[in-house]
Inverse folding.
């Protein structure tokens, strides 16, 4: 089985948020439930202040702290599925310990106050146990992997678009949206990225483009000191998060 | 002697009715909001997922552990002067834990699912799995030990074995509870291998506060009305123990604060400077809830004064409730992985529903407490089981 990895080239990323939008449309997430997001920072001060940004999916960690803390095994890492970390919505008890333990802040408990009014969950009340039911939704559903629209009281997160990548032909090294035979299997964020800053492929395959990019262009993983060992790598200058500091005003 | 227990009389009935009303009202309010708005009626969010319901649970669970540890002084370590306190301590430990669990149950996304999903999946890597195991064992041992005391068996080999098992259960439960936080290296404000020690100390302190308060309450806040051995415990060993526990708690908080203030790590440093010490409530809770009680209990004359003892127990109650709240929230106010994108620390104040949950837990505690005082002789000691208990038992049988 492949070990799926994502490579994000920050020298190409324009911070346009197309990935974020594509993700929320693909996965029918709520406003604020951004499985994929682009974070914007400032670093330093005048005259050398910088504006920076960083797209951030779930890192699908090799050593996922979210998995270790989950008391029910609802959160699990599926090596058979390329090492994707899933949440089983039939098992999750909503204790939110995984949200405490994920260093990257990429897990969501959507049973919370709405980010924007009107609350879309009131506009499209949920059916069949779903938290909400929009007029159109992705027909792909698999609650044991946290795919679809979640029920109340569980945690949701990025699935690396497992419902797409799992259908890719066996042994494929990379899922490249420019390949007409593979485009349907490419994760929504990767497929949509206008400057082609995102790449998706098999980290276990020595021939894969993602491995070459990581090796040739100095790929790094973020928050390496946590030991979580992400399967998402960043290329280009400025891969890092400027430390939190409260604003003066 | 048990006639002096006002909980058995009209005042007890009044308190019982009041507690039940508050319990039903707050439970109804919480349920209504959970049914209609779900957890959106809480002010927690995905970036700050654990709020006051969790800190309330923590407060109750640790007060229970503290009471269990205090009860083990006479029951495991043979400090006979505390015999008079042991049965009430065990009973309180049991009902406080039950009340805490009730609060936790309403905080979870799927309470009933927990009952099968945790045991059947055996995720032994998770500290929360062990929390379930150890607190379930703790609850069971407390019940068992209480049942032994109730049947007048305080000293048989079996009882002592249960006592030791229960003591170990308490240590494991509260120590593991500490590690739920203490093992989170991605949350530097909590990450601390010595956190179990801090939890033991604060557990004993809040347990003492509960024990002193509820013992006085049983006797109408009049020490003269208490049985001889209770009076003796409250004038000799217990106040000193209280002073020591408060002192050690303060020491531990000071050590954590100094480390945090000294550290450059923004995820620790700013929690102390911009959240904890910037909050008048936190500062007041440390001063009024810990330092003042400690100062009062250090005075040899004041610490035996009944009014001071009651005041100190109430102040400590409040102080440690706030301490737990700020501990839980403080570990989350600096947003993870957001860096300078976050404008400021995450703002959180408990919603009305979250407060109602805290009130519900407290009302459940008071309800169970009055029932316990009415149906059991919580001041029983092994020395005079038959004589002291017989009139009350007879009274109960006719009631
Ligand atoms: S980024 Fe967070 S949610 Fe994703 S696998 Fe790692 S620890 Fe788990
Ligand atoms: S909230 Fe769900 S997925 Fe997360 S730790 Fe709890 S049970 Fe596991």
């Amino acid at each position: 089985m492949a070990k799926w990895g994502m490579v994000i080239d920050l020298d190409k990323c324009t911070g346009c948020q197309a990935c974020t939008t594509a993700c929320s449309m693909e996965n029918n997430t709520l406003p604020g439930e951004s499985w994929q997001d682009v974070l914007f920072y400032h670093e330093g001060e005048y005259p050398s202040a910088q504006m920076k940004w960083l797209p951030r999916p779930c890192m699908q960690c090799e050593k996922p702290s979210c998995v270790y803390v989950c008391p029910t095994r609802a959160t699990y890492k599926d090596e058979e599925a390329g090492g994707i970390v899933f949440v089983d919505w039939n098992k999750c008890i909503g204790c939110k310990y995984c949200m405490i333990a994920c260093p990257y802040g990429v897990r969501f408990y959507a049973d919370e106050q709405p980010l924007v009014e009107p609350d879309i969950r009131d506009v499209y009340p949920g059916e069949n146990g779903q938290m909400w039911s929009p007029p159109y939704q992705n027909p792909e559903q698999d609650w044991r992997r946290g795919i679809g629209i979640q029920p109340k009281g569980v945690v949701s997160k990025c699935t690396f678009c497992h419902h797409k990548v799992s259908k890719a032909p066996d042994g494929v090294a990379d899922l490249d949206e420019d390949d007409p035979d593979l485009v349907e299997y490419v994760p929504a964020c990767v497929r949509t990225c206008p400057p082609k800053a995102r790449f998706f492929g098999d980290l276990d395959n020595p021939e894969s483009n993602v491995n070459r990019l990581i090796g040739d262009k100095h790929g790094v993983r973020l928050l390496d000191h946590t030991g979580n060992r992400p399967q998402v790598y960043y290329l280009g200058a400025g891969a890092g998060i400027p430390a939190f500091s409260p604003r003066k005003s | 002697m048990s006639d002096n227990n006002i909980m058995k009389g009209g005042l007890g009935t009044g308190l019982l009715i009041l507690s039940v009303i508050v319990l039903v009202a707050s439970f109804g309010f919480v349920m209504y909001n959970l049914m209609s708005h779900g957890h959106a009626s809480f002010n927690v969010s995905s970036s700050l997922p654990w709020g006051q319901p969790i800190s309330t649970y923590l407060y109750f669970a640790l007060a229970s552990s503290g009471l269990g540890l205090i009860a083990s002084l006479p029951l495991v370590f043979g400090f006979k002067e505390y015999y008079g306190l042991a049965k009430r301590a065990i009973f309180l430990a049991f009902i406080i834990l039950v009340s805490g669990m009730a609060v936790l149950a309403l905080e979870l996304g799927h309470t009933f699912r927990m009952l099968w999903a945790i045991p059947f999946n055996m995720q032994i890597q998770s500290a929360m799995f062990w929390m379930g195991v150890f607190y379930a064992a703790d609850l069971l041992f407390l019940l068992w030990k209480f049942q032994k005391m109730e049947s007048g068996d305080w000293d048989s080999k079996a009882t002592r074995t249960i006592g030791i098992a229960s003591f170990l259960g308490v240590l494991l439960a509260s120590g593991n509870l500490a590690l739920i936080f203490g093992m989170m290296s991605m949350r530097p404000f909590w990450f601390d291998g010595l956190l179990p020690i801090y939890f033991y100390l604060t557990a004993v302190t809040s347990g003492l506060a509960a024990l002193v308060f509820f013992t006085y309450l049983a006797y109408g806040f009049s020490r003269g009305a208490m049985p001889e051995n209770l009076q003796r415990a409250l004038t000799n060993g217990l106040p000193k123990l209280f002073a020591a526990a408060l002192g050690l708690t303060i020491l531990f908080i000071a050590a954590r604060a100094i480390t945090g203030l000294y550290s450059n790590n923004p995820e620790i440093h700013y929690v102390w400077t911009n959240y904890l010490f910037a909050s008048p409530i936190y500062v007041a809770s440390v001063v009024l809830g810990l330092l003042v009680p400690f100062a009062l209990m250090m005075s040899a004359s004041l610490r035996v004064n009944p009014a001071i003892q009651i005041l100190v127990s109430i102040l400590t109650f409040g102080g440690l409730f706030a301490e737990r709240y700020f501990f839980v929230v403080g570990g989350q106010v600096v947003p993870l992985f957001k860096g300078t994108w976050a404008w400021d620390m995450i703002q959180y104040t408990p919603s009305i529903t979250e407060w109602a949950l805290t009130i519900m837990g407290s009302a459940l505690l008071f309800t169970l407490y009055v029932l316990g005082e009415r149906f059991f002789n919580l001041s029983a000691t092994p020395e005079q089981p038959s004589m002291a208990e017989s009139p009350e038992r007879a009274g109960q049988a006719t009631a």
Summary: The mean pLDDT of chain A is 95. The pocket of iron/sulfur cluster (ligand 1) is lined by residues A 58-61, 64-66, 85, 102, 104, 106-107, 157, 228 (CB under 6 Å). The domain at 4-235 of chain A is CATH 3.30.70.20 (Alpha-Beta Plaits). Chain A touches chain B through 54 residues (CB under 8 Å).
